[in-house]
Amino acid sequence: MESREENIITKYLTGTSPDERDIKLYRQALAKLSPGASLNQDRLWNIIIKHPAFLPYIDAGLGILEPRHPLRLRIYILLAILETNPRYAKIFLLNFLAKSKPLIFIQCFYKGLTAFMRVLIGICIVKTIILMYHYIHEQRA
């Protein structure tokens, strides 16, 4: 497995590239936990490699359609590793003390609306990929 996987997922989760520690721990975790792979993951992952901007949508769609999908398990594994790195503390530990309550409400509403839109778009993307795969498979048979 190449570090491209770690790079794409880390950029999705933190907006930055992983350091060597994160890559090493991720590979060790994958070797121990073996989250598995499926044809769906390969199709989805190939699209994500070509278009990394689709990862948030595919992740959101899989969260509804297939929450235990191997791609999501890999995201969870890397998320757990990144949360242990002090480098990302400001990303994962929000500081609400300095903000006003109306601003917190607006931020939460915006985050919720964004998440809802990602889910809708993600479901459409994932369903389209699955339907295309089945259509292509039927044409070959």
Tell me the fraction of residues in β-strands, as a range.
under 5%
Helix content: over 70%
In N-to-C order, the SSE pattern is HHHHHHH
Question: What is the total domain count?
Answer: 1
Overall number of strands: 0
Derived structural class: mainly alpha
Low-confidence stretches: none
Overall mean pLDDT stands at 86
- What's the alpha carbon Rg, rounded to whole Å? 17 Å
- The rounded distance between the terminal residues' Cα atoms is 32 Å
Count of DSSP H/I helices: 7
**What kind of sheet is the major sheet?**
none
Quick description:
This protein is 76% helix and 0% strand. With 141 residues, it is mainly α.
How would you characterize the overall build of this protein?
The chain has 141 residues and is mostly helical. 76% of the residues lie in helices and 0% in strands. The longest helix has 40 residues, at 101-140.
Which short descriptors sum up this protein?
single chain, 141 residues, 7 helices, mainly alpha
Which SSEs are present, and which pair or pack?
Blueprint: H1 3-14, H2 20-33, H3 39-50, H4 55-65, H5 70-83, H6 89-92, H7 101-140
Helix pairs in contact: 1-5, 2-5, 4-7
